[in-house]
Design goal:
- The strands form two sheets. A four-stranded mixed β-sheet has the order 1-6-3-2. The chain has a two-stranded antiparallel ribbon with strand order 4-5.
- The radius of gyration is 12 Å and the shape is globular.
- It has one domain: Roll (Flavocytochrome B2, Chain A, domain 1).
- With 79 residues, the chain is of the alpha+beta class.
- This is Cytochrome b5 heme-binding domain-containing protein.
- It comes from Limosilactobacillus panis DSM 6035.
């Protein structure tokens, strides 16, 4: 199966609201955070799913990119 390529507009649809899964992009990779309790409702500490959170994760998060380990990868974010 071909890897899904998301535009920013397409990614925005996956915000964890109205039955949609919650996806976030980090460094061009799109992850499914729907299964994480911390992302219930598509929100986590002021961040909203359906966005590129590279800057937030790498510059502001105390966890860094280690929180991505084990998350399902659902595709790539187009430039």
């Amino acid at each position: 199966m071909a890897e899904k390529i998301f535009t920013k507009n397409e990614l925005a649809q996956y915000n964890g609201q109205n039955g949609q899964p919650a996806y976030v992009a980090v460094q061009g990779v799109v992850y499914d955070v729907s299964g994480k309790a911390a992302w219930q409702g598509g929100k986590h500490h002021g961040n909203v799913a359906g966005q590129d959170l590279t800057a937030v994760l790498l510059n502001k998060s105390p966890h860094g990119d280690r929180v991505l380990k084990g998350l399902p990868v659902v595709g790539k974010l187009s430039d």
